[in-house]
Design goal:
- The strands form 4 sheets. A 3-stranded parallel β-sheet has the order 1-2-3. A 3-stranded antiparallel β-sheet has the order 4-5-8.
- The longest helix is centred in the N-terminal third of the chain and has 17 residues.
- With 295 residues, the protein is an alpha/beta fold.
- Helix 7 packs across helix 8.
- It has 10 helices and 10 strands.
- The chain has 2 domains: 118 residues, Rossmann fold (3-Layer(aba) Sandwich); 157 residues, Rossmann fold (3-Layer(aba) Sandwich).
- The structure holds glutamic acid.
- The site of glutamic acid has 7 residues, from loops.
- Glutamic acid binds next to loops.
Length: 295
């Protein structure tokens, strides 16, 4: 077996639709073509949005589609100690700072001092904005801590840059098509993402950190995923450098669009794989509809 390993990493926050099927099959077929491994990882750290019935449904839908994966499946919620250990290492090196701001305060701050195209860790509605903060003065922080105010941990890009003597050497290989057709060797520019959150107030860890730890632990050599996550790669490669983890090769594929020209999503009426199945679709008709050769 080759050293090639890729993964599909859904979050069980809804039913899978054609966009997910496209992503899962693109990765699965790449593993098969390379004679490599295919890993399924359930990204379920967001306790506020994850539901067990979606977890069960996605396994069933992927099996129905004809995918097979290594067992046991890794569920992020069962491995919080791994993420905590990585956070502790970054904290010990002074690379993180506590952020007590509310979402509203972060958005207001971004509006006052926009830095670039990331989302400040705030998701879709804050796209186009980047948050760069700084640690609070010690006495103010002590006061907030004493009052039990919740806080997130953010990565300080300034300190990360110092720790690495600049970001110039950070690179990744893109074998897919980034949104700007940035194929080939891509220079990493974490500044465009801002001081991202690595541990959320509510769940104690955050997406970028968990993904980087897991990709390394699971021996993922190729991250194959939608081009909506291309920007995330810039932060993830930086985290790999800070944590001494290998950088996989990346392949970002095109996104399936709905009739409105926007990316397929539940909110613009994308039918779930379940709905399609009830309507008589078979795994073969789904594959034919996806036209995998154009990933
Ligand atoms: N869990 C993420 C999602 O559902 C995917 C993460 C990744 O592929 O890196 O969009």
């Amino acid at each position: 077996m080759s050293a090639f390993a890729t993964r599909f990493a859904p979050s069980p926050t809804g039913l899978l639709h054609l966009g997910h099927a496209f992503s899962a099959l693109t990765a699965f077929e790449a593993a098969r073509a390379a004679g490599g491994r295919f890993v399924l990882r359930i990204e379920d750290i967001d306790r506020t949005r994850v539901r067990p019935e979606f977890d069960a449904a996605l396994l069933e839908d992927l099996e129905w589609l004809g995918l097979a994966w290594e067992r046991p499946v890794r569920r992020q919620s069962e491995h919080m100690a791994d993420y905590q250990a990585a956070l502790d290492r970054l904290k010990a090196r002074g690379l993180l700072y506590r952020c007590f701001r509310t979402r509203r305060e972060v958005l207001d701050e971004i509006a006052r001092a926009p830095h670039g195209p990331g989302d400040g860790g705030l998701g879709e509605d804050a796209k186009g904005a980047v948050f760069r903060g700084e640690p609070l003065p010690g006495d103010r922080e002590a006061e907030l801590l004493a009052s039990g105010q919740p806080y997130a941990w953010r990565l300080s890009l300034d300190r990360a840059r110092e720790a690495l003597n600049g970001f110039d050497r950070l690179r990744f290989v893109e074998q897919g098509r980034g949104p700007l057709d940035e194929t080939g060797v891509v220079a990493v520019d974490p500044m465009r993402e801002g001081d991202v959150i690595l541990a959320r107030k509510d769940v104690g860890v955050a997406y970028h950190l968990a993904v980087v730890v897991d990709d390394a632990l699971q021996g993922v050599s190729h991250v194959i995923r939608g081009e909506d996550l291309f920007h995330a790669t810039h932060i993830q490669v930086l985290l790999q450098a800070l944590l001494g983890l290998p950088t996989p090769t990346y392949g970002h594929h095109r996104l399936l669009l709905g009739p409105d020209g926007k990316r397929l999503a539940k909110r613009n009426g994308a039918p779930s794989l379940r709905d399609l199945r009830l309507d008589g679709a078979t795994p073969e008709t789904v594959r034919a509809r996806l036209d995998l050769s154009t990933a």
